Amino acid sequence: MIIIGENGSGGKPNLTYCQQYADSHGVARDKTFIDYGTQYGGWETTFAHLNPYLAEDGSFALPWDAVLDGDNMEYIYSSGKPTYPGVNEALDAALSD
Hints:
Elements: E1 2-4, H1 15-24, E2 32-34, H2 44-50, E3 66-68, E4 75-78, H3 87-96
Parallel strand pairs: 1-2
Antiparallel strand pairs: 3-4
């Protein structure tokens, strides 16, 4: 999935921008989402749900990677949490189910 919180100029993305982004990056359009909140601008919903998975010092960097268990959407890897296993181990576990 790709979540777009702002357009190339840092403004609010629209549907056309997201479709063009998906097409130019070889991503399925139905896997490309807009997250542009009203209170804080872009990424509002995404950051609200990522908060528990930030680095120990509270920092956050993009791109941010995660692997979720497809059965229950539980995080099994987060690039911001060193306590999770490595991404390769997480992918192996996810694919072996």
